[in-house]
Specification:
- Its cofactor is heme.
- Strands 1-4 form a two-stranded antiparallel ribbon.
- The protein contains eight helices and eight strands, in the order ααααααββββααββββ.
């Protein structure tokens, strides 16, 4: 059995070999450790009341904001608001429009919801793994009508060449999400709205590397998990209680347009009939 001394010696040896956060003894980590311990000690031993600690935190934030002008603060708040509300609501608008346009697909989704819930309780996130067709429908809507048609700006880190074009270092680069979602090399008849394309022979969801409504890589949308939860919960619970249809006999157009950075439907008139 290894002794404590043996373990300490091995840890020291690993630190020498690998370094890294787990074994780092640099000044930054020492300062952070000292700050954390002193803060907790002052609060835990009653040297500072909770109210005093909260006041200090607020004062620290206020001091930090002094270095930003009003325009920057406003833009930061608007970024959070836009990314957290407009995008999800726009996805739901697209979903509802497609359900009104394709009542047969709407009926299939509702049948799956009814099978799982017996229509006697709300849909929960635990139900999602049993609702393959509902999940596939949401994926297909986000493929055919992505809320963002372009990724966030990136920059090339080196001089490079792509598709015969020279791309100098530090060039701003954006990827075309819409083009990827309609690429026939990755999608069979991409112009068709077909949730079945996402379901395999075992009734499980399939993946497609060209699907990127939230972008890809290290800068993928930070709200992807929350957005998927909100979209599934809102869509499935509304469809459980309402039938969605066009308000009149006018043929529904599925055209979209850019509204800032968001791709929105040209027409969003639908009627919800209680079931």
């Amino acid at each position: 059995m290894a002794t404590t001394t043996d373990i300490n010696l091995k840890m020291k040896e690993l630190r020498k070999q690998f370094g890294g956060i787990a074994f780092n003894t640099g000044k930054e980590w020492k300062d952070l450790k000292k700050f954390t311990i002193s803060t907790l000690r002052d609060l835990g031993m009653g040297k500072k009341k909770l109210e005093e600690q909260i006041y200090l935190e607020i004062q620290t934030l206020a001091d930090a904001f002094q270095s930003h002008n009003e325009a920057n603060i406003f833009q930061a708040i608007m970024d959070l608001f836009t990314a957290g509300s407009d995008t999800t609501s726009t996805v739901l608008i697209w979903v509802f429009i497609y359900m009104a346009k394709y009542p047969d697909i709407q009926d299939k989704c509702r049948a799956e919801i009814e099978k799982i819930t017996d229509l006697n309780r709300p849909v929960t996130m635990q139900d999602k793994r049993h609702m393959t067709y509902v999940a596939a429908t949401l994926l297909e809507v986000q493929r055919i009508a992505p809320v963002a048609t372009l990724t966030a700006p990136h920059a090339s880190t080196v001089d490079t060449k792509l598709g015969g074009y020279d791309i100098p270092k530090h060039t701003i680069v954006l990827f075309n999400i819409m083009d990827a979602h309609y690429d026939p090399n990755y999608w069979d008849k991409p112009e068709e709205f077909r949730p079945e394309r996402w379901i395999d022979e075992d009734n499980e969801l399939k993946k497609n590397e060209a699907f990127m409504p939230f972008s890809l890589g290290p800068r993928i949308c930070a709200g992807i998990s929350l957005a998927n939860i909100e979209t599934f919960m809102a869509f499935s619970n509304i469809l459980q209680r309402f039938k969605l249809e066009s308000p009149d006999e006018t043929p529904m157009t599925m055209e979209g347009k850019q509204s800032g950075i968001i791709y929105v439907p040209v027409t969003d008139n639908i009627r919800a009939i209680p079931l």
